[in-house]
């Protein structure tokens, strides 16, 4: 009888569905929820940027920022290339 109680007691704590497994699963669940919250925030930020570039409602500041990333400059702007930034073969 004592052996059976010890067997079931050990599995209640250390078994596949025991107390320690439940604690590990709870920890994983909290980590998953935190990651999900981060991904939702990232997606919301991306959606806002995309909405700002829609043809029917373009935000000028966002458009200018994206164009600068692509290398475009305004017609009244001057570009000064320093030796570190000159294109290869032009020295």
- SS elements, strand count: 0
Overall morphology: elongated
Which whole number gives the mean pLDDT?
A: 83
Sheet with the most strands? none
Number of helices: 3
Helix-strand pattern, N to C? Answer: HHH
Helix-strand makeup class: mainly alpha
As a whole number of angstroms, the C-alpha radius of gyration is 29 Å
Helix content: 55-70%
Distance between the termini: 90 Å
Low-pLDDT sequence parts: none
- Proportion of strand residues: under 5%
Fold topology:
Blueprint: H1 2-14, H2 19-52, H3 60-69
Write up what this structure looks like.
- The protein has helices spanning 2-14, 19-52, 60-69.
- The longest helix has 34 residues, at 19-52.
- It has 91 residues and is mostly helical.
């Amino acid at each position: 009888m004592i052996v059976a109680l010890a067997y079931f007691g050990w599995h209640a704590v250390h078994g596949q569905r025991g107390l320690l497994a439940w604690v590990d699963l709870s920890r994983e669940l909290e980590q998953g929820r935190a990651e999900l919250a981060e991904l939702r925030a990232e997606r919301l930020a991306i959606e806002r940027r995309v909405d700002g570039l829609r043809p029917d409602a373009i935000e000028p500041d966002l458009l200018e920022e994206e164009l600068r990333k692509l290398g475009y400059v305004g017609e009244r702007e001057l570009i000064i290339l320093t030796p570190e930034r000159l294109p290869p073969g032009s020295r």
